[in-house]
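Changelog-linked ticket: iron/sulfur cluster example.
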Amino acid sequence: MENPDLLAMEKTIRTTCPYCGVGCGVLATVNSETKKVSIKGDPDHPANYGRLCSKGSALGETLSLDERIAEPSINGEIVPWNTAISFVAEKFKNTIDLHGADSIMFYVSGQLLTEDYYVTNKFAKGFIGTNNIDSNSRLCMSSAVAAYKRAFGSDTVPACYEDIELSELFIICGSNMAWCHPVLFQRLKAAQEKDNKKIVVIDPRVTDSCAIAQLHLPIKPGTDTILFNGLFVYLHTNNIINAEYLEQCEGFEETLFACEDYKNPAIVAQLCDIDLNDLLCFYNWFAEIEKTVTFYSMGVNQSSSGTDKANSIINCHALTGRIGRAGMGPFSITGQPNAMGGREVGALSNLLASHFNLNDDNHREIVSKFWGAEKNISPHIGFTSPDLAEKIESGKIKAVWIMATNPVVSITEANRLASALDKCDLVIVSDCSKQSDTLKYANVILPAQGWSEKKGTVTNSERCISLQNRLVEPYANAKPDWWIVCQVAKAMSFNGFEYASAYEIFKEHVALSKHQNSGETQRSFNLSALHELSEDEYTNLQPSQWPLHKIDDSIDKNCSKRFFEQGQAYTSSKKIQLIPINPKPPASQISQNYPFILNTGRIRDQWHTMTRTALASRLNQHLPEPFVLVHPDDACKLKLQNNDLVQIESEQASIIVAAKFSDGQRRGELFCPIHWSNAFSKNARVGQLIAKNLDNISAQPEFKFTPVSIKAAPSSWHALLLVQHEIDTQDFLIDEQFLYWSMNKHAFHKEYFLSAKVGCESEFFDKTVYAWFDSNTECVTYKDEAQGIKHIAFFSQNKLQALLFITPIRQELPSNSWLNSCFGTDLTGMANEMNISEALLKQSFVAGKPASGDLDVGKIICSCFTVGEKVIKKSISKHQCKTAADIGRCTKAGTNCGSCVPELNKILTLLSLTEASGNPTILKAGRP
Ligand code: SF4
């Protein structure tokens, strides 16, 4: 029976996950006494139907207030809000007077809510009078936007999530869907199990997404347009065209002409560096199966020809009429939770609000009038975010306001931006976390509310608007982003920012979507049916997918949830445009000095620059330090061992990370995750390696192709340090003797991987660690001076305080999954539980492994239940597990969010291959 006291203390609130563009619905249960928030997937939300991935499941563990910004400050001095607001308003006014409106720039974020985005865009474009507002979505989906606009005359995603289930051929192109859009991947996997659909992965790497694919095409990076041009001409040659649909299109002849060079599949296979039979299998499937979805993401967008890549995909769908029909479509997926909201409000420097066109005089006038803007909106496209460093250096930008993003980690030429910000007259940063590296360059810091504190809407990849709801009271003096912007606008004497709530802003956003939305100014983005929404209805907003047309007084339920089934685009001729594509190679090429291609991307359990996900200790265990994936053959040539520390260098900068061998990499190609910042590591920020090679239509940078070199890093010793939270480790982290460090937070302690520069003696380091403890602390030490090995365990108050392992050979650092579970626990109780003496327990710590092998669970695979590889392998052998579900029944692994299921399957496959041959074989996806 339910506990009535507990029920009285608990309240369940519907909200939305703040991470990826899937936009999963969340049920958050808040305990008013403990303030703890427990998280479940919302079974009624159409994006996830109750599922959540590892990141979403751990949301309740990311609400710690330790790293929050509490108060506004100016040049490091805490000030009241009104002082901060007046300061910013005055500075903006002076800057505009002296240098003009275009000397101000706003760098905003797909993490903002639509209401925040809306008022910031209105403030910049309508009232400051500059189009210098650009979202960090420039880095993730601006090519998709540009391609849709070229093809449809409008940034309109034609497909929806239901098409995952309804498709019969599902092509995952340039996306590790299993890690980056995990809940959609689970939907796809469940659908495949039910109806046996065909799945093709197009990606230079073997990723977990290949686990459910019948065909993997590991194309040479940058050859996507060749592959799809080849497909276009193949479909035409075999008469797989939809003549009726083609009537609604323009540009067919020119596009076919551009594809002629790729008529011979053997040449295409050679250029893409894939097996000809695999290529033909893909082309045949596309030809034979009408219900086809092409799902694409960063691997397509983040390229100097990202717009062309997306259009080459759309061309094939238009040729076959597979757009806007159930189970069919070119489906670009957004990376961030509200990238689509940013597109709705026009928060890129080349867009205008509500899908009006910035380059149309009439459209600018309509929006200016609607806003009551004092200045007409400028006809000039604003600066893009990758331009920011250069524009500050050249003196064009004098003041920049950065909101909810961490560009000195994430943008191209990240070091150049850091130096530029350092010299910029005014840098304002509004954020909620102290762990943003960008704060270091801010003159003004404004504390923003976090995910659990603010209220407003987000729109996901399938155009579905959901509410992010307030769960707990805001921290200290943190304010909603929209409120901060409106206060500054009012302080600058602008009218039109007197909103009392996010609801009032949303109503205006809806009204603008409805405004003049017919005839020549008709747009796909239409929320008319929400025009009469009351505040109460807004607070209880059901997930609502646009277009939301109104018939009489209610939502038009017959309104199609897909676009362009009949053609009828938003181009001037109303026809869909086929775009002739002439494939271009990536902007930079490998050379003698930089002979490897670096690809970058996300990992399963971290989000962006880790300011939130790293607060959940379980998310730090799957891949605990920054790394680079290297093919074993390349590693062999470079004389590298698995887990060696390596230096990756590009023309821009160099970083230090751990090398991990992966036969899923193509030879000559490397992969680094993007997440680690200076707050969590030294010398591991990947953004600093990336050149500003931009797509000349979308201005999206080429994050997937950077020529680099790789070599062993010059280190003299390595250490693993685990130390309980109360010890202040800040000072030692800035010690110049370290070549590299990375840090993870756990519930009771911090975990550091450290490496020292050549010539640095380890003694200086262990002395620093000794100095943290007083004479009452017991130390147990193991030393092998000849080998340079030292292990020290520190105990006091019957608890483990710190563990330090120093070795010249990195591979000899202990496996830490057991060690990480020993902090915060009473030693007597632990020894009793293990049925050993306390002395033996202490020796186990110093040895770096438990006295009983059973307690070392191995590398963590399932973050939700902290299930390690050793436990999984033991269960497979003991219980004869044949499937991931069998493993789940024995260990719980994979039974919550399911994000680790591809890895469970990989372990099963490797074990069965080992059993069969005595040796594990490299997994290679191929034709069935
Ligand atoms: Fe959040 Fe995961 Fe859903 Fe993305 S897939 S919205 S990260 S729960």
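Closing comment: Example verified and attached. The longest strand covers residues 715-724. The longest helix spans residues 81-99.
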